[in-house]
Design brief:
This protein has helices spanning about 15-20, 55-70, 85-100, and strands spanning about 1-5, 30-35, 45-50, 75-80, 105-110, 115. With about 120 residues, it is α/β, with parallel strands linked by helices. It has one domain (about 1-115): Hypothetical protein VC1899 like domain (Restriction endonuclease-like) (Rossmann fold), CATH 3.40.50.10770. Helix 2 (about 55-70) crosses helix 3 (about 85-100).
Amino acid sequence: MELVCFHGKDKENLAQISALIKKEEWDKIVVIKNKSAEKTHFSDKCEVIEVNSDSPLLELKEEIINKIKPKLGKGFEVALSIASGSGKEHMALISALLNVPVGIRLVAFTKKGVEFVN
C-alpha cells in the first residue's frame, strides 16, 4: 500500500509522520509539504511534493491533483496521514485524492504501532 502524508508548518507532529514512514513497509511514500514548512528529511524513499498552502482551497486542491496523480501507482487506495497540517490543507488533500480517484484509509502511529483508523 502507498502512504500519503501531509507535512504542514506545525513541528509537533513530525515524529508521527517519521514513525509512520519508518515503522511500516510501504510500496511508495508521498509527502505533500506546505512550501512554508521547515525542510525535513524523513527518508530517501519519500517523494516530496511542495504545494502553496496560501492559495485558496480549490486552487490548492487542483495543485495537489496535478502534482500527486503522476506519483501514485495503480492501487485503488492509499494510507493517509493528516496528523500534520491545517483543516484547509486536509480538505484540499482529501478532495484531491478522491478526485484522482483513490480510496483513503486513515492511518496513525500509536503505542501499538501503525494502525488504520477506519
